[in-house]
Amino acid sequence: MTKKYEYKVAIYRESMLGSLFLGGSKVDPMKFSEFLNANGAEGWEVKTMERESRRMLLFFEREAFLVLMQKEIPS
After folding, report:
1. How far apart are CA 30 and CA 9, in angstroms?
2. For residue 53, which of 25, 32, 18 has the smallest C-alpha distance?
3. What is the tens place of the pLDDT at every residue in 33-68?
4. Is 43 left (phi over 0), alpha (psi -120 to 50) or beta?
5. Contacts with 11 (C-beta within 8 Å, 6 or more apart), sequence order
6. Which residue from 56, 55, 40, 53 is spatially nearest to 8, judged by alpha carbons?
7. What whole-number distance in Å separates Cα of residue 22 and Cα of residue 62?
8. pTM listed for this prediction
9. Cβ atoms < 10 Å from Cβ of 19
10. How far apart are CA 70 and CA 13, in angstroms?
11. Going from the N-terminus, what domains does the chain have, and what CATH number goes with each?
């Protein structure tokens, strides 16, 4: 029997306030862990992720993660 999977793509990023006040915003490891754990509790498994810096309002930058997750669909 072939396994079937469902996929989910999520972009995790910090709010714009840190970027506006500090000129740049990094992802908080504790909040990111909470995000991953909440998805893991729903059965999602991270397959890959990519870190990127997204520019906003020309001068400001904030860190973001593009996360690809999968979970098995019960038969």
Report:
1. 20
2. 25
3. 999 999 999 999 999 999 887 666 666 677 889 999
4. left
5. 64, 65, 66, 67
6. 40
7. 10
8. 0.75
9. 22
10. 20
11. 4-73 (3.30.110)
